[in-house]
Design a protein that fits this description.
This protein is α+β, with helices and mostly antiparallel strands and 545 residues long. It has four domains: 1-119, Immunoglobulin-like, CATH 2.60.40; 128-335, no CATH class; 349-453, Sandwich (Immunoglobulin-like); 461-544, Macroglobulin (MG2) domain (Immunoglobulin-like), CATH 2.60.40.1930. It is 17% helix and 36% strand. Strands 2-11-10-4-8 form a five-stranded mixed β-sheet, with no helix packed on it. It is elongated, with a radius of gyration of 31 Å.
């Protein structure tokens, strides 16, 4: 995290944290690590806090509990941050704590993910071609080609025999993966085959000339009804449009008029992982894989491995010495963009998160600092071009200074910006836009707003004298706003403005010079989303349904 060595108080935060970084060491997918984090509120009024976390390859590695809370004036709140990685890679991310006062703080989160199965230890911290190469080496080492007859014997008699593999059959039983039809009561593979059963090669034999070790690799062999097996033939997998021939034989699997074979739902994920294993272990025989990759990835995600799928991977290892990585750790697929093409395309990116859509200073009579956090949640450094510029649309006599970074923001790190606004005697609305070049493309536009001298109190002074509540939250047609004075003598003597701002910082509702403790805003016609209510120098977030 940029500026991690600087105390948070140096950024003029309204909350502080007990640590600028949490290092979790090593954790596995089955053994998480936790760390406490204490958030303190030195202000004289309660502050509402919400946690924002990020994902790795679309999945959360860190979590925090509770994720939303209010820290009492002068008090503290301890939360538990958990590191439970799905990937055996080094994780570097951020925890952003947004507040309903003057900005946000960020805490750097680091930890090393490790898989509990030592079989995959060589894949640690790898992605793309390096990961694919490592997986190929792993599944090749120790693989003992059984020969076709022995492999089929193992498949029918033990691996897929539902009397022995934990599926609870009382007699020897196998199920056709395409139709659901069963062969039962057999005492040998030949007897099962006499019940019109055969062996499906998910990657068709014709594509690799029925050669060993491919022909006997049980990771892509499955028991099937003989007629369904013949009907599937060597057709590629996909969505079957307009099922057209042998539909009754294949049902509920389908062979489409587009010559695509669509397995029934219970087999879709297994088919996908068998194909992913094959392309990893061997090669793209007959260029068979390319046109199927997208749908196989989809089925892999849509139908994740079951406990039985993982048990089958282990049973095949007991028989022939290797496992299917994608049954054990399906998330490995997310780290390989393309199994046959350019493996570097797609994952290198810059993803920018902003802690708030706008900087809301509230009512000020002197300088106030808003801390704004930008997180690089991508995989490439985030370049920051030049100094931040700003323009005023109102209150032009006011002045604004913005701290600027001096180095690019590395992946997983945060950029902390301090914007200090001085009203310089301006009374009334102060607004404008900060322009900051973050990465390529158009500059990021960050609106800011304040009320100069509206209440005549600095934000913390106002918070000490007044409380703000809004209800209901989420709101529907109207929103009730209660700005309650600690000293009743202040009510009626204090005039304040009420504004409702949308996610872009635009004022969508406004009431001027309100003197009542309770007021109601009409919400009709507003789109659903997150809004900010500002009453004087106090603000609250609200969801409009």
């Amino acid at each position: 995290m940029l500026s991690a060595a600087v105390g948070l108080s140096a950024h003029a935060q309204t909350i502080t944290t007990s640590a600028g970084q949490l290092n979790f060491g090593t954790a596995t997918e089955v053994a998480a690590q936790t760390r406490p984090l204490t958030i303190s509120n030195p202000a004289s009024a309660p502050i509402a806090v919400a946690a924002k976390l990020f994902t790795t390859y679309g999945q959360p590695a860190f979590s925090v509990s509770p994720s939303t809370f209010t820290v009492a004036a002068g008090g503290s709140q301890t939360v538990t941050v958990t590191f439970a990685p799905l990937h055996n890679i080094q994780h570097n991310s951020e925890l952003v704590l947004t507040t309903d006062h003057l900005g946000a703080v960020s805490v750097d989160l680091v930890g090393q993910g490790q898989y509990s199965l030592p079989y995959y230890s060589a894949t640690q911290n790898l992605k793309e071609q390096a990961l694919l190469t490592s997986l190929k080496s792993i599944v090749t080492a120790g693989h003992n080609a059984l020969g076709y007859n022995t492999a089929r014997d193992r498949m029918f008699m033990t691996i897929d025999n539902e009397r022995l593999n934990g599926q609870g059959a009382s007699v020897n039983t196998v199920t056709c993966v395409y139709t659901g039809r069963q062969a039962t009561g057999y005492t040998s593979r030949s007897q099962a085959q006499n019940q019109n059963f055969n062996t499906e090669h998910t990657w068709p034999q014709s594509m690799f000339s029925s050669a060993d070790p491919m022909v006997s690799d049980i990771h892509h062999l499955f028991p099937t009804d003989n007629d369904a097996n013949n009907s599937r033939s060597s057709f590629p997998f996909g969505v079957a449009t307009q099922p057209y021939r042998n539909s009754s034989i294949n049902a509920p699997s389908q062979l489409g008029a587009n010559n695509r074979y669509q397995p029934r739902d219970p087999q879709k994920g297994r088919t996908a992982r068998a194909m992913l294993y094959f392309i990893t272990r061997y090669q793209n025989y007959a260029f068979f894989f390319g046109s199927q990759q997208a749908i196989l990835r989809q089925w892999h995600q849509q139908f994740p491995p079951t406990a039985q799928d993982r048990a089958r991977s282990a049973a095949v290892q007991a028989a022939q010495g290797n496992r299917n990585p994608f049954s054990d750790y399906p998330q490995l697929v997310d780290r390989i963009t393309d199994f046959i093409g350019n493996p570097s395309v797609g994952l290198d990116s810059v993803s920018i998160y902003r802690s708030a859509p706008t900087m809301e200073f509230g009512s000020i009579v002197g300088p106030a600092t808003y801390t704004f956090v930008v997180v690089n949640n991508g995989t490439q450094p985030l370049t920051v071009g030049g100094a931040a510029t700003h323009t005023f649309t109102s209150g032009g006599a006011a002045s604004l200074t913005v701290s600027n970074p001096t180095t690019p923001v590395a992946p997983g790190e945060a950029l902390v910006l301090d914007a200090t606004l001085n009203p310089n005697g301006v009374t009334g609305a102060i607004s404008g836009t900060i322009s900051l070049q973050l990465g390529a493309g158009a500059p990021q536009q960050i609106p800011f707003s304040a009320n100069g001298g509206t209440v005549g109190l600095a934000p913390e002074a106002e918070a000490a004298l007044f409380s703000l509540n809004v209800y209901p939250n989420p709101a529907d047609d109207e929103l009730t706003i209660v700005r309650h004075a600690a000293n009743p003598g202040l009510s009626g003597a204090d005039a304040y403005d009420v504004s409702l701002l949308d996610g872009l910082g635009r004022t969508v509702r406004h009431l001027s010079t309100v003197r009542d403790e309770l007021t109601v805003l009409d919400l009709h016609g507003l789109p659903a989303g997150l809004y900010v209510v500002r009453a004087g120098g106090l603000s609250r977030r609200v969801v409009v349904k």
